[in-house]
Amino acid sequence: MEIRISSEPTLYRAKFVVPVVADPIEDGALITSGREVWEVGPYKRVKKGFLGAEHDLGEVILMPSLVNVHTHLELSALKWRLTPSGSFVGWVKSLLRARSQISAGEAQKAAQEALKEMWHEGIGLVGDVGNTGLSIHLLREGPIPAVFFREVIDFTGRLNLKEFLKEGLEDEKITLSLAPHSPYTVSPVLLQAIKSWTRRFGLPFSIHVAESPEEVEFLLTGTGPIRLLLEERGQWNPNFKPPKMRPIPYLDRLKVLDAETICVHLVQVEGEEIEILARAQIKPCICLRSNTFLGVGIPPVPEMIEAGLKPCLGTDSLASNDRLSIFAEMETIHRFFPHISPKTIVLMGTLWGAEALKRPDLGGIWRGFRADLVALKLCEGTPKDLYEYVITVPKGEIIRLYG
Ligand SMILES: [Zn+2]
User: How many other C-beta atoms are found inside a 10 Å radius of the C-beta of residue 47?
Assistant: First the structure.
């Protein structure tokens, strides 16, 4: 169900409002005007003196829409086509093979379906990564605000970034940025060039990092299945000297880690490496359901939170996940890490994701935030912990409220 928020000032009342940026409010209400939230609080106070239209949503939890910081819509046609082989590089190879057999029309149709799924799953902001640009016009025409990261893959050192930027990164509706694929598929100089470009324009920079044991092996020794894959694909650079460092210290030495860097995965992270990440205030993006599908390991999420980092959530693509659902990701985080508070998990799925994508107007409900909301029907009377209810109770229909 969808409710288009009126452009006239309107009051929405709900059994509970969970603003995320403030404590939950029982018998709460908010007033919207156009796309913005004007006022939030207990119904009685918000109602006082308000003469506009009123809409009672009833027995629902009203919360901000969710944020999927990392996916690849253009890979959606690979849903159910790949099985984990026990080897990360084996999976990459089968992905490349399967992808080459998919027509542009099929890829487009699947991406459209996936976007629709995200909308129905209550997602109101997405970070989409692609190297074909296939999803750009879908995002532009669709209802979900987005950051589109054009993915750069070049380990040979031959790619000229200036040529790449000529493709045009101007767009009114969606934010466009660049994302180097990973430390093992992008040469060190190119990694630094991309970071200096995104830094100059104040854009988020996103990179897959510390995902598999094979990535660690390659950076430490310059050998292993990743080296063979680069050779097979004509991507090996004979001048490359392995840094003999693990992924996090390597990116730190290249000076690409800062508060505008989204580090996707962070599975292969050890003790003092978390301190490096915390010092740089990077944004960890956890894709736990993808990690478990590929069998690469489990990211140390509680340690990240303890160090003061604010992890956000991504689904990665349908080539390593069966759903693009942040509700499903939150539930999985809760199952794997029962000691992380449900409130923190909801922050990961909303506000912290919006911060990572540099959209301070999304991910919360407060004065000045964009009115992009989700209402969840309550089926069990009053829940003991609203945050826990949000992440664990099977969702019936999700009502979307948007401007
Ligand atoms: Zn990814």
Answer: 14
